[in-house]
Amino acid sequence: MSSVENVIIIGSGPAGYTAAVYAARAELAPLLFEGRSLGGSPGGQLMLTTEVENYPGFPEGLLGPELMENFRKQAQRFGTRIVSEDVVGVDFSRRPFVVKTASTTHEAQAVIVCTGAQAVWLGVAGEREYQGHGVSACATCDGFFFKGKHVVVVGGGDSAMEESTFLTKFAEKVTVIHRRAELRASKIMQARAMANPKIAFVWNTEVTEVLGDGTRMTGLKIVNNTTNETSEFPADGLFVAIGYQPNTAIFEGQVRLDAKGYIVVEPYSSRTSVPGVFAGGDVIDHVYRQAVTAAGTGCMASLDAERWLSSL
Ligand code: NAP
Predict the structure, then answer these.
(1) Binding site membership of 158 for ligand 1 (Cβ less than 6 Å)
(2) DSSP secondary structure of the chain
(3) CATH number, domain at 139?
(4) Are residues 263 and 115 in the same domain?
């Protein structure tokens, strides 16, 4: 085991890197773990995004991966050490805190958790079987494979609208299947999707099974939940866009989580139930979920950690 770190940051999205920029500039020499288990690349959800137009300071917009590369470089510029390994366990019951990867064990006076959130799946038959063979939760990653095809997007929120609109760059037709007759998405994103001639909507309908020929998805079994009428819906692809789940499995029993599994922090702070453990980004936020809010709460976590360390 190496010497005790001042602060370990777990996560490499906007929250983690912003925490690192602040901690590094406070000369805390932070050690940051960038996980690879979620989609294979560090950088968080923006790695799965194309154009980002709402991150302040970039009036022309930029690509999600480009933005994350900038975050990373800025964190490194001030001396953040980055380890490309998933954290597989923590022990916050003892001091210094313990953070483990599959091959190493580290100790730290303070820990900042910025592990984010990930997509939720429908959980219907065939969905898992055809993942990567028609079924996806990431239009940015897989849209390219559906050139000239007909794809379905499930969901009625901003993610579903964003995915549908993006998919029209490739697909011939995009059908949004939503379980109610009203979208949850913001008005501007609804309007954009509805004005797109390639996007059609099927209301009050749920997907009950993903159908395939053994190698690829060929369609969906659907049910109209007002008439109970079932039917088969031919489609080449299914993009599931029904929300997110926080990445907190390794923190169960270590810090207080809410009913949905998000880390609970004290109001207007990043303080978790364990003094010395702070959290920021989507892992504490099921309301705003924006890169800029994640960066903001990552900054808060770093400032809180710095204050806490100086009080030891
Ligand atoms: P969301 O707003 O929670 O919407 C999830 C949608 O999926 C809802 O329409 C929900 O239906 C549906 N759904 C949930 N479980 C389902 C199931 N088992 N079967 C079928 N449908 C199901 O999630 P989101 O769209 O991922 O957005 C999350 C947050 O990120 C929001 O705050 C959103 O504003 C934000 N966001 C912003 C942008 C942007 O501004 N660029 C882009 C993406 C996301 P009901 O409506 O019936 O509940």
Answers:
(1) yes
(2) --PPEEEEEE--SHHHHHHHHHHHHTT---EEE---TTTSSSSGGGGG-SEE--STT-TT-EEHHHHHHHHHHHHHHTT-EEE-S-EEEEE-SSSSEEEEESS-EEEEEEEEE---EEEPP---BTTTTTBTTTEES-HHHHGGGGTT-EEEEE-SSHHHHHHHHHHTTT-SEEEEE-SSSS--S-HHHHHHHHT-TTEEEE-SEEEEEEEESSSSEEEEEEEETTT--EEEEE-SEEEE-S-EEES-GGGTTTS-B-TTSPBP--TTS-B-SSTTEEE-GGGS-SS---HHHHHHHHHHHHHHHHHHHHT-
(3) 3.50.50.60
(4) yes
16 with 86, same domain? yes
Residue with the smallest CA separation from ligand 1 atom 18 is 122
Question: 124 in a domain, yes or no?
Answer: no
Catalytic site residues?
A: 138, 141-142
Domain shared by 115 and 249, yes or no: yes
The pTM score is 0.75
CA–centroid distance, 48 to ligand 1, in Å, is: 17
Q: Residues 150-195: pLDDT tens digits?
A: 999 999 999 999 999 999 999 999 999 999 999 999 999 999 999 9
Question: Does one domain contain both 248 and 103?
Answer: yes
**pLDDT tens-place string over residues 17-51:** 999 999 999 999 999 999 876 555 678 877 766 67
- Find the mean pLDDT for residues 277-289: 93
pLDDT in tens, 67-92: 999 999 999 999 999 999 999 999 99
Ligand 1 pocket test, pick from 67, 159, 180 with the greatest ligand atom count within 8 Å of Cβ, gives 159
